[in-house]
Amino acid sequence: MFSPPLHRQRHQFVIDFVKRNKPKKVVDLGCSECSLLQKLKFHREVELLVGVDINGTTVKKKMHRLVPISTDYLQPSYDQLRIELYQGSVTQKDARLRGFDLVTSIELIEHLTLADVKSFSEVVFGYMTPVAVIVSTPNSEFNPLLPGLVGFRHSDHKFEWTRAEFRSWALKVCLEFGYEVEFTGVGQAPSGQQEGVGFCSQIGVFRRRGVRDGCNMVLGDNAEDVFSYTLLYSINFPSLRDNNTLRKVLVSEVLYWAEKLKSGWMEERTGEGSGAYSLCQTAAGGEGCVSEQSMEMEEKQTACGAEMRSLVVQCGRSVSEDQEEEEEDVFWKNSQRQQDSCTLRRCVSVPLDVLWSCCPKISALTGSVCNLRHLLLDEPEVKLSQDGAAVLVNYQEQGTDLEEEEDHNDLEDSGYAEARQDSHTAEQEENWEANV
Fold first, then answer.
1. What gap in Å lies between CA 288 and CA 256, rounded to an integer?
2. How far is the C-alpha of 236 from the C-alpha of 254, rounded, in Å?
3. SS (HEC) of 193-250
4. pTM (predicted TM-score)
5. Is 247:375 a contact under the CB 8 Å cutoff?
6. CA–CA separation, 85 vs 233, rounded Å?
7. 328-331: long-range contacts (C-beta < 8 A, 24 or more apart)?
8. Which of 31, 83, 112, 435 could anchor a disulfide with 51, C-beta 3.0 to 4.6 Å?
9. Burial of 400 (0-12, 13-18, 19+ CB in 10 A)
């Protein structure tokens, strides 16, 4: 009867709310198979995403859906995300769930007894005191339109409210705990019957009164700290705000672009390049240098805008013409760039300011050439020149075996607009919905 299916419409309602209001802390009560959490993890305005369900076995079976995917590690963003899953009852208090920006309860309260609904109201609205709450529940007035339905939509339902009954409960909650509510729903009735029966799933969107945008002061701070839930799973997603992650990404970018610039110069030196580099030889010492006139990077199609000054130098000391073919190994020990040993080996020097200019990602990660130099000082994978102004890359003549170029193609931005949809088990889906 519904396209898309009703459960997807409910989830999309929550996702649209998150897009508009950008809550940083979200908890889904009755998360079950984590299907809603799986979609919300791609909306990185959320920094803390929590799921709670009384059935820990079901959560454990499906919590693998929430692990970071490969692109989270290969292309970490500045956004932060932590995911936590708990086993516990929504009728019990837990201090770790206080002060959230958004609480969702999707098709949950109809599984509670009326006595438990009262406890649910006290815990969610009175103790957790979130900025906003989204509650959805079946609308019993719509049931006659559902083919083959006898009784409740699911065998575990304790009740199914009419619109008036749902409104009565919601307004009482608002009066008691200081909220206001807006009524809506998903799953429209056939043409001409919407006003008479309402939505298939009725939804109440509660907002706490007196809350300014971006400011969630927890009410009743003197409330007791109770920890009744069991933590089942927690993970922090990779983020560039973490210094270790930032350094790993930066080193990877620097090594890639230094090698790419060196390869470009070598192609020009052998006459195989496109003319982007011009080669000049100094009169003495056998040094070579490359100046950049109007180099276009293949992927970026933008000019570097900086000269390739002294791209090729002799490491450690100048060498005579007879020594050009000898090799030298140079090691820089520490942040003072002290030379530990030197045994004649030629290498290519790629200035840091050229790297910073040619690679937008490097400039975005560091902010300045000075910061770039500081971040690379203690990185063993990166060899810096003695003055710390350039990255040293081993020089190899044409004809020798070159190392394979790293696979550095950026993955296309998917937008993360929609997670893969998995099938739902009978424990969570309504009996009726399994057939539509």
1. 22
2. 26
3. CHHHHCCCEEEEEEEECCCCCCCCCCCCCCCCCCECCEEEEEEECCECCCHHHHHHHH
4. 0.68
5. yes
6. 5
7. 330/383, 330/392, 331/383
8. 31
9. exposed
Please count the residues of the chain: 436
- Residue 358: strand, helix, or coil: helix
β-pairing, 230-236 with 288-292? unpaired
356-373 burial, b at 16+ Cβ within 10 Å, e below that, comes to bbbbebbbebbeebeebb
- Rounded distance, CA 24 to CA 42, Å? 13
Pull the structure tokens for residue 106. 């999707």
Tell me the two tokens of residue 177: 């705990």
